[in-house]
Amino acid sequence: MNNNPVVEEDVQPYRGRFAPSPTGPLHAGSLTSALASFLDARSLKGIWRLRIDDIDPPRAAKGSVEAIRSALISHGLIWDEPVLYQSWASECYERALRQLSEKGWLFRCICTRTHLTARGTCGQACADQNISSDLPHSLRVKVDRRRLTGFEDRFLGMQTAARADVSEDFIVKRRDGLYAYQLAAAVDDAQPHFTHIVRGADLLTSTHRQRWLQDLLALVSPSYGHVPLVFDRQGHKLSKQTGAPALNVHAPEDNLRASLNHLDQVTPPTTARTVAEILEHAIAHW
Q1: Domains of the chain, start order
Q2: For the segment 253-274, what is each residue's pLDDT rounded down to a tens digit?
């Protein structure tokens, strides 16, 4: 990117990914994140994979996976190696939970929404109680904020772990038995699975939580880089939850140019008319 990101000397060969949830088709914001991670991987001669983060079945929309795959292909964002699915990694998440429990960082929480603090943390001192596994509960991990360390974002610079960014505890397994995003992402994104994570800036605070889990689990954190979000005319972040319109897959060239402009990249010349030509220019100038 134009703000001269720091490029580390990596022991591991570059492995990046785009990891959408199957909750609907891609929109302009998700395309921008996918394009950024794709260009970063290709410019550094790395591997770029597609991972479907399907750990929340109630939110999944029928046909989303195929729609996501088709949209990426139409925009020339072709992944390496077979598609990954987070739902395949349940044993890894259970092993991580056991490790957290054995080290004393995990506790059962019986709080409902009405009992949580304003920060969304446990509001009934559940960590100090001997709560039976027979009671409906979530699993939360404790955070020692004195031990939190910041990280060097490749695009945004040093990110300190302020108290406002990380609460004193957070959920790693939900009351309904589903694994929480923070746990799954921390485990799946660690090296050597992936060495570089490029994603939207809305996940900056999540990065602190995921790095905390990686530290507790003795996992090697990847290099993180966060890119600007795409907003609608009302100033709202584009998302599937807020009804962001699906990409027009019949105008990939226009979509790619818009995303490159949002990422403050060098504008491809007018002679670059095809998807392949636009991406070739974008990779060379990333």
Answers
A1: 15-285 (3.40.50.620)
A2: 999 999 999 999 999 999 999 9
